[in-house]
Amino acid sequence: MNADTAVEYVAAILMVTGGVMSVVSAIGLIRLPDVYTRSHAATKSSTLAVLLTLLGAFLYFWAVERFIGVRLLLGIVFVFLTAPVAGHVIIRAAHRSGVKLSGISKGDELAEAREKFRQEKESRSEG
Amino acid sequence: MKENDVILRTVTRVVVFIILTFGVELFLSGHHNPGGGFVGGLVLSSALVLLYVVFDIETVHQGVPFDFRKIAAFGAMVSLLSGTAAAVLGKPFLSQGFGYFDLPIFGLTELATVTIFEAGVALTVIGTVVTIILSISKDV
Amino acid sequence: MVEILMLISLVLFSFTIVISVYRIIKGPTEPDRVIALDMIGVNLLASIAVVSCILLTKAFMEVILILGILSFIGTIAFSKYIERGIIVERRHSR
Amino acid sequence: MNNVLVLPMLIPLLTGFVLFFLRPSIRAQKMISILSLLSLVAVSVRILLIIRGEGIIRLDFGGWEPPFGILFVGDSFSALMVLTASVVSALIIAYSFTATERRMENMFFYPFAFFLVAGVNGSFLTGDMFNLFVCFEVMLLASYVLITLGGGKVRLAESMKYIAINVVSSWFFLVALAFLYGTVGTLNMAHISVRVAEVGQGPLLSAISVVFLIVFALKAGLFLYFWLPGSYSSPPGPIAALFAALLTKVGVYALFRTFTLMFYHDEFIIMTIIGTMAVVTLIGGCLGAIAYTDIRQIASYNVIIAVGFMMIGLAIFNEEAFKGSVFYLIHDMVIKALLFLIVGAMVYLTGKTKITGMSGLIRNYPVLGWLLFLTTLGLAGVPPLSGFIGKMYIGLGAVEGGNYFLLFAGFASSLVVLYSMLRIFMNCFWGETIINREDQRPYPARRLIPIALLGILTVGIGVGAQALEPFVSDAARVMANPGLYIDAVLGEVES
Amino acid sequence: MEFHMTILVGILVTVAVYLLLSRNMVRIILGTAILSHAVHLLLITMGGAGEGKVPLLRESDGPYADALPQALILTAIVISFATTALLLVLAYRTYEESGSDNMNTIRRIDRE
Amino acid sequence: MNKFAGDGGFGATAAQFLLNLFIAFLWMLLLDEDEFRATTFAAGFIVGIFIVFFMHRFFGTQFYLRRLFAIIKLIFIFNRELVKSSLSVIGQILSPQLKIRPGIFRYDTILESDVEVTMLSLLLTLTPGSVVMEVTEDGQGLYIHAMDLDTSKEALISQLKNFEQAIMEVTR
Amino acid sequence: MYAVFIIFLPFIMAALLPATHRLIGDRLIGWYVMAVPLVLFAALIRLIPQIAGGEIVSASYAWIPDAGIDLAVRVDGLGMIFALLITGVGTLVALYSIYYLSPRESLGHFYVYLLLFMGAMLGVVFSDNLMLLYTFWELTSISSFLLIAFWYHRKGSRYGAQKAMLITVMGGFSLLAGFLMLYFMSGTFSISEIIGMRDVLAGEPMIVPAMFLILLGAFTKSVQFPFHIWLPDAMEAPTPVSAYLHSATMVKAGIYLVALFTPLFGGMEYWFWSLSIAGIVTLLWGAFNAMKQNDLKALLAYSTISQLGLIMSLLGFGSAALSASAAGDPAVYAAAGFAALFYMLNHSTFKGLLFMVIGIVDHEIGTRDIRRLGGLMSFMPVTFTFAVIGSFSMAGLPPFNGFLSKEMFFGAAVDIASGQPFAGGAEVLFPVVGWLASVFTFIYCTIIVYRTFLGPVQPEKIDRVPHEAPKGMLVAPGILAVLVILIFFFPNVIGKYVIGPAMQVMFPALSREADLVPEITAWHGVNLPLVMTFGVIALGLLLFITFRHWRRIYRVAPFRWTMDSIYRGLLQTGEAASTIVTDLYMTGRSRDYFVFIYLFFLITAGGMLFLTGAFEPDFSRGPVGIFEISFVIIMAFAAIAMLFVRSRITATLLNGVLGYSVAIFFVFFRAPDLALTQTVIETVTTVLFLLCFHFLPEWKPEDSPLRTKVVNGLIAIGAGVLVTAFGLTVQGYDVYGSISVYFEESYKLAGGSNIVNAILGDFRAFDTMLEVVVLFIAGIGVYTLIALKPKKGEDDVEGK
Ligand code: NA
Ligand code: NA
């Protein structure tokens, strides 16, 4: 087994690991109780699965064709840059549009702050 | 409660440049790789769409003060006229030519009239997509 | 063997996608669905990377990047829609 | 190489874009439009003459030999269609100069009209099935915009249906193309013809041709015409006239091309299916033309009747009948433009749409009234007006082919046409005059000129049919002998 | 592969047609969108899908997948996008004017 | 005033030049050539001029290429945190019974600029188990949704501190 | 040239009329018009010697030679008779009109129509080309339409005009079809050539349908039962028009046509029976109905119908002369043809006279209702004299020309009955029915005279004081009255110089002039015809006196179910049925329209696929990975779910899933460009959906009835199955390879190594160019759709 073959295997294993991560987040998507917690699972899928898979692909191409897949790297960067923003924005939208946290949650300081702000505004407009 | 879009906006500023560069690259590399005028134009316009979604029309307009309807028309005309050029030269309408030229900076480069054609395509795509989005958004 | 591993990873990805489709249908809230779509996009992206390795072609590198870009734009748009019902504003109103 | 062949499509396209940039100056738009329309007509005539001199000509775009590239093929049939479409649209657009609201002119009315013409001319000229689809789309998109332009509730609702149905028909087109490509593996019409002929069409290819039949029948308003009355009767006069004159004709043209050039082997489809569809269309159109009192509806159902009539020519399937249909197509473009412009003018002048709401208009608008009467006679195929010669040849073809039932149906429909049109004429123009001369809305002479020119044209085509005869005969000859077309496109090429 | 694709196309067509037959404008538009998906898949399937290499000459020496249907689909995609855009805007304009998104009640009343 | 302009500090010209270089570099990467070619870089630079010209009004975001080392360190810290928290979340998801207590809490950061806050939020969000939900108007308060407040709030806060430190090394 | 000039002079003068009218004014315009037929009449008279000498004046100019349509004109004896009628009566009618029409009427229109008609009629009788003839034939219908509706503000005028037009044009279409058949058999439109091919054509199977179609044309124009119904309503026209078109000339166009084609069809049994029976029935029915009319013009209309039937039957009798197989002497039968032409001439004189008389009554008294008239004799002695002359002539009494022709009719009918040329047996009825009709004729002639001019005056029922007509108005009827008497005394001049040449045309096979031109004598001894005439008078007087008592017969059901009520009912029920049927499927619902489209697809395309044996599915699965399968499942799953989701956002998301999945299939299918484009387009489309959702309400569940849903479902499934079946069959079809191998040379040919892009940018750049245009149109279309909103409350009717 030469070095390239080894790298190929490593690449493949990275991909499988990515797949496993993905499935884990899928399970999270099913099991977790509310949109907020599920978004955690989704973010993971975006990050680890993609990181591992693209890295695997990168290695594989390098090993087989000596090809440096810059687009793959760029893809990783891009996903790392955008995935958290997407998660942030969607979860924010959920909260702003009034989606409640699940019953098992411990507290919601944001909702409290919003409520406070609203009351202040009301009292200001009354006065 | 006052809101703050700092994360989204900061990232968007960066991401838009990546998209734009990628779009131009797609446009130019279509001759030999996947890409071309359509996809290039589409990607470029999707960058603009992102800007419009994240910021707002007026802000983006300050940054990109173009009349996209005219860009679209101009692009389409470029495509049409690039075909006409061949006809004027006595070749069948829409004949494309290509050749290899030794340019000062770029070295031996393949230049093809199809690039002009595709540029027209790309401009039309950008102009049209943005026109559609803006028209609807301004209707609120 | 390498290919089999890759196929396995593909199957895993598609499993996730199936689950995500289920989540889109089930909801219950709209953000849930959007998250699921985002997940589909990302998993597709990963799948294409694997497919590229299996087919041993570089032709789909652009697609990978594009998918990343566009699933991002899509998610932002959906989020804004859920939040405000309007995704492009004439002037930012906050 | 005949670059002139692209001009009937290129001129209107370029004009459309130039007019787009000239938005601020309506005057300049009109000037350019006129120049462009004149050159369009000139080019069309030139093409026709070249074809007479050199036979069928073609333009391979980009210089790519058929069947690999796209090409425009000019034979007498397509060139005649292009010429007529150009002349008619020139007159309609000239009419609209005087009859279009300022706000519509500002909203690119003229560019869209030119795009429509471009799509129509392209559809006539193309020799490639997929390019036909694309040309259709140019035409359709322009029509989508024109039909909605400035419309209110009713018009938008009708547009919605019109577009939805056309989207579905475009879908069928693509489906048919997929099957076609999957079987014969080519898109060039002549090449398709060669390949289809080589295997003798066969049941599968016949079935595929039926899918094409659905597509073009939808476009032409053959049997599947229910979308037509609503959408043709809601837009303002000039737009309705453009639609009525051009759109369905493109479908009719495509049907003829498809079933004379490519899928001409299956008698059952041509005689039985198309024949039945044509007759049902005639009947349905006749019933509709009698059923309603809205003049725009009556006019729209007349469009349907004409489609049925022309398709009889295809179902009969001999050279005489083809000749008749070509003549009738030319006639129908002219007369439908005339009809819809007059109907539009009537609605404009009275603010009413029903025959029961108008009366005695001939006192107020004698020229308009007599033009409508002329139109009535022309529609009924009374000699020596334009409709006659086509009707005569279709009749001759029917006699020759022994299709007496089709002959009967066609001629009977002419009677209903006459009846439905007389209803308009007699109820609206005759009877007690209800508008005082003082209260009447003036109808400007400059609007009358294009209408009158169309009227003269309908007389001219009939009386001067000899001028068209050689071209029409040639068109019919090519339809009856697809080999001529194939040789011109592919040379002596094997499949 | 072609077999499965064809079945899939059939399913998509079924769903799309069912949506077309509904009264809500958005459903109808979605129906047309799915119709487009279906026909694009059909086109590429009929062009002999899944055979050959990616049609990039620099990538491999062939035999290549049939590039022609790909080009056709590209055109079709753009056209169906254009149509969908127009249809969507028309839908909401119609709703604005008529106050209904029901395609069966906005029909014209043209007879007494 | 241009709203796209970042928070200043640099002259616009310098910033544009920087960005242009960045694009040229990106270009080179995208072209996937086997070796470095000056011509390619120049071509990228020209493309960059085009883009920067096109978008020059947006300009003003800062890039600190020279703090490469700080960045590498940040990446390292991030990867460590990523693995740590991933494992903990995987554990939570796969445990037979869900025993998590999610919730939203406020964290006030010491970071100031938009870029800093953004970077912090990105890093935090990327690591599983925590998502930034809202940034207060003054940019100081972060509302964070955590997967399990009971067991990991402390870990999260220390993670935040780590990130803040590393970010500041990069940006200041 | 001469003949062409004759046809076109009226048209030229009509074209010049508006200008002339302005120049010379209302008072003189009538004279200008009258000059036209007068000049033509003179010109024709000048031709008579030539024509009578057997010469034929003809000319031919190319019009649409490729279609065989020539401006071929031929003046022969047959055309001459009619042309003399047209110009002669035309002159008198024009003269009469000058006094009849008030200058307040729109004289310009009237005279233009009249000249148009005159030219058209001359065209009909002089054309030697079927299509030319047909052209003029239709033009007569049209000018008649315009003349009937001259007072177009009257409902009755419009109704009458429309009815006449519809029926005659229907006949015209039939005529056209017949002509086309003749062309198909003979290869020419030239009438003289076709007639020359009699023997060849006789063997063609299509000759019989052609004959019937031509007859239908002739019958509608010449008001043969049951197409006679338009004539009474045509009486809404001004009386000069009725006199001219609807008794003297236009209605005789059918007679002309039958005479014209007698040399071709004459001798055929069908021809004989059709003409004879139609004529006899029309004769009886017209006369029967004439008696009950209260309106004098209506009475004349029915009388015209009746007499045209008589002429038609005579032509039928005469045609037997041309049969090779008919029993009896051809010359005897040919006499019937002679009688037809003679009767036709006479009819024009006395009927024209009577119309003018009625016109005078109407003009001076203000009514033509016999219930309001009576006793006018003392006020209008000249008019009364004319009325007596015309009526008695029509009744067949001497010393008027009507007597001669009536006798000849009886004679011909008797000859046919005794000769039995085709041994049908029914011939015996002809003289009987003819005689009965003559009795009726006698009665209504008496009615005209008695009820109008004799008896008591009823001043309370009329608005004006009765007085004689102005002298000018009496000139034209006076000339006719003189002719009625003159012809009685000198019939043979006409027989020799006018009818004789026509007979040669009609019966070319019979060459001896003696056979063709019988000597007409007023007194030919006591023979059966004379006896019959006495019978007519006796029974006629009896019945006239007892008319009040048997009038009830008209209320017997079969007589009330007139053709007229059938026509009326046909139009009414036609309209109602059309509305019902059309409303049934033109629902305005897009759903129904889609159902029609897909049903049509299922039936035709499905039928073609499954019933012709085309369906040969290729079930070979080919290599397929689990991953592909899973995406097939995902797409199917997402698609089906779309039918059940409650919110449009979910549906849009699912559509996104579908779009992205399509993209991944493009990856599987080695289509990177497609995958790229699809991904971007899908996202932009989704954004568009979201943008537009702002303006649209959330969708409601489809609450259509279960039945509708089931139908929808079945159609949808059918469509899906059919597309699949098609697809599977197409896959199995492996005859041809694709042309796209050629494009694999793209680098060499077009300098690009991305084949797809080389196709898009070069091989098929034209598609791409147009696609750009499509996109542009859509973009600007969206803009206009939004920017150009109608103002509030603006409806869709054109105008500002
Ligand atoms: Na159409
Ligand atoms: Na489509």
Could you give a short description of this structure?
The structure holds 7 protein chains of 7 kinds. Chain F has 172 residues and is mainly α. Chain F has helices at residues 12-31, 38-55, 68-94, 114-126, 149-171, and strands at residues 103-108, 130-135, 141-146.
Q: Which descriptors would you attach to this protein?
A:
heteroheptamer, D: 495 residues, mainly alpha, two-stranded antiparallel ribbon, 2 strands, 2% strand, globular, G: 800 residues, elongated, disordered C terminus, binds sodium ion
Structure description:
- The complex is a heteroheptamer.
- Chain C contains 3 helices and no strands.
- Chain C is mainly alpha-helical.
- The longest helix of chain C is centred in the middle third of the chain and has 26 residues, at 30-55.
- The longest helix of chain D has 32 residues, at 153-184.
- By secondary structure, chain D is an all-alpha fold.
- Chain D contains 21 helices and 2 strands.
- In chain D, helix 13 packs antiparallel against helix 14 (319-350).
- Chain D is globular.
- Chain F starts with 11 loop residues before the first helix and ends with a helix.
- Chain G is mostly helical and 800 residues long.
- Helices cover 72% and strands 2% of the residues of chain G.
- Chain G is built from 32 helices and 2 strands.
- Chain G has helices at 2-52, 77-100, 107-126, 130-148, 155-186, 191-196, 198-202, 207-221, 230-234, 239-248, 253-265, 269-290, 296-319, 330-365, 381-395, 401-419, 429-453, 471-489, 491-506, 513-516, 528-545, 547-550, 557-560, 563-585, 590-611, 626-642, 648-668, 672-693, 706-732, 746-750, 755-763, 765-787; strands spanning 57-64, 69-75.
- In chain G, helix 2 (77-100) packs antiparallel against helix 10 (239-248), helix 8 (207-221) runs antiparallel to helix 11 and helix 13 (296-319) packs across helix 16 (401-419).
- The two termini of chain G are 55 Å apart.
- Chains in contact: A-B, A-C, A-F, B-C, B-D, B-E, B-F, B-G, C-E, C-G, D-E, D-G, E-G.
- Chains D and G meet through helix 5, helix 6, helix 7, helix 9 and helix 10 of D and strand 1, helix 4, helix 5, helix 24 and helix 25 of G.
- Chain G: Belongs to the CPA3 antiporters (TC 2.A.63) subunit A family.
- Chain G: Keywords: Antiport, Cell membrane, Hydrogen ion transport, Ion transport, Membrane, Sodium, Sodium transport, Transmembrane, Transmembrane helix, Transport.
- Chain G: It is found in: Cell membrane; Membrane.
- Chain G: Residues 633-698 form the MrpA C-terminal/MbhD domain.
